[in-house]
């Protein structure tokens, strides 16, 4: 389906169904508009609120003030299902905004059926945005069906934060203040117990109760460190290595022994334990950087150690997409490309939110090397592992909830990891047997 093809009522309803297949967690706030009245207005939808919203507001103010050709008008919508439903309906009706933010992992559910228009890679390249300016896994993730459908602003990986005072007392810091490298599950257990001995709470904070996303982030980090990925071929069975999956889940169970990490903890409790200086380490996303800075905590951050031989870390990306328009204004479409290129090139401040800018000239600059602790985990962008692509996967999706439902008993009650992995596989196979609501006839291709 080409970008100029009208979408039928059936596809419009399918778009709504796709939006309801899962939810995503992003957020925002709007910048002040100004400048020449002759500038074209570009409509930009996003859900970036809180600190992320403030930072995005600043980036948009800078982009608007730097030229006279366009003025970006942001619309900030409620997170989750409301956003994705409205975006799908606007695209299905051909009345979408000029550009929008999506999680990269959600694009696989929207590109089929024409809910998104592909980017012109030659046009992007003429503006200094191409394959060479992105880490390989991030650029590749933007593709579906052979076309580029999303251009990443960042990577926001799952990382390890650590209290430098506690870890120093535990003797697990190198001379440069970095955490002592560990290269096996056993070494990390030993380090964690040393940190626990110097902590008033636990050695490691990890919140998972009722949070499938948290369980999945750590599991998939460990699983992909085996040099494997999960495959989810449409209409077929999931491909998951049982031995590696069971080993990864069993290791998570081992960490939650009441000494290294609490046997029962939700996300908020884990973050609070670390932020108040009661634990030495924390598994979390980079989005908690501002939380720890506000707590005036002595801390650093790094990639989660490679324990199974292959550098890998779970992540997602906030990405720019072109929601489908039936008759796009060619001048505005050209200016949209310029806006995205301008924002990528000026994304240094986006790192203040903890995220890793995807545009390599930013992260490879001397100024970025001085940004601590962000520069200490920036290499995670080279090793990101996204959800396996399927219409039902992605940040905040039902897929992650299904994983949590299958495995929480292992972490909470010591249930059999093998049985939990079997249950998870059954749940995924059931979803794979259903057609993509946005492409029910499977016309999109692979």
From TrEMBL:
Keywords: Signal. Gene3D superfamilies: Periplasmic binding protein-like II. SUPFAM superfamilies: Periplasmic binding protein-like II. InterPro entries: Bact_solute-bd_prot1 (IPR050490), SBP (IPR006059), TAT_signal (IPR006311). Residues 1-26 form the signal peptide. The keyword Cell membrane does not apply. PANTHER family: ARABINOSE-BINDING PROTEIN-RELATED (PTHR43649), BLR3389 PROTEIN (PTHR43649:SF14). This is Extracellular solute-binding protein. It comes from Labedella populi.
